[in-house]
Amino acid sequence: MKSVLKSGLLALASLALPAVASAHPAVGDAAGFSHGFAHPMSGLDHVLAMVMVGVVAFQLGGRAIALLPVTFVLMMASGGALGVAGVALPYVETGIALSVVVLGIMVAINVRAPLAAALAMAGLFAVFHGHAHGAEMPEDAAGAAYAAGFMIATGLLHGAGLALGYVIGRAGERQAVFVTRAAGGVASLSGLGILAGLI
């Protein structure tokens, strides 16, 4: 049981590794798929939100396990299209930071939201994340390859969240509650730090 708990804590700790990178990296020479793939992985705000979506999907169970991540990726693609087209969207960075706070709280207190409400919330937050990806696409990048990169990276982060939820669920009830609250709390506090400009 301790090994399961330790695995869960190590998985959570690994989420902090991208914090050393800028939330939105400079364009530089990178383009296309590799840049699109790297963008969601390079900022703590994106990583935490994507992983928390996976954990929330696991907590809700049933159809949410597939529908929540898929809805997020599809709505993120819509937001990305707006960003590429130069359509202004107010409060993008605030929306991204709030997504980390809200999703972290949902994980910490194990919110059992109705599926429709969870999908609507995920879709709204996804538009902000997608807009940031699209607006920062390098001019020399192939749009379809860039979009494929950030969508695949996002899907992998959702998968990591689902796996984290599974690992936590394998722990005993008391340990699982502690680890879940800790994971959600860390994410939520990080989101507040990002919102306040401290991270």
How would you explain this protein's 3D organization?
The structure is a single chain. The N and C termini lie far apart (34 Å). With 199 residues, the chain is mostly helical. Residues 1-30 have low confidence and may be disordered. The chain has helices spanning 2-14, 32-41, 44-60, 64-84, 92-109, 115-135, 143-170, 173-195. The longest helix is centred in the C-terminal third of the chain and has 28 residues, at 143-170. The radius of gyration is 16 Å and the shape is globular. Helix 5 runs antiparallel to helix 6 (115-135). The protein is 76% helix and 0% strand.
Helical segment count: 8
For the secondary structure, the number of strands is 0
The shape is: globular
Secondary structural class: mainly alpha
Rg, Å, rounded: 16 Å
Please mark out the parts with pLDDT under 50 across 5 or more consecutive residues, or reply none.
Answer: 1-30
- Helix proportion: over 70%
* Sequence of secondary-structure elements: HHHHHHHH
Topology, please?
Layout: H1 2-14, H2 32-41, H3 44-60, H4 64-84, H5 92-109, H6 115-135, H7 143-170, H8 173-195
Helix pairs in contact: 1-7, 1-8, 2-7, 3-4, 3-5, 3-7, 3-8, 4-6, 4-7, 5-6, 5-8, 7-8
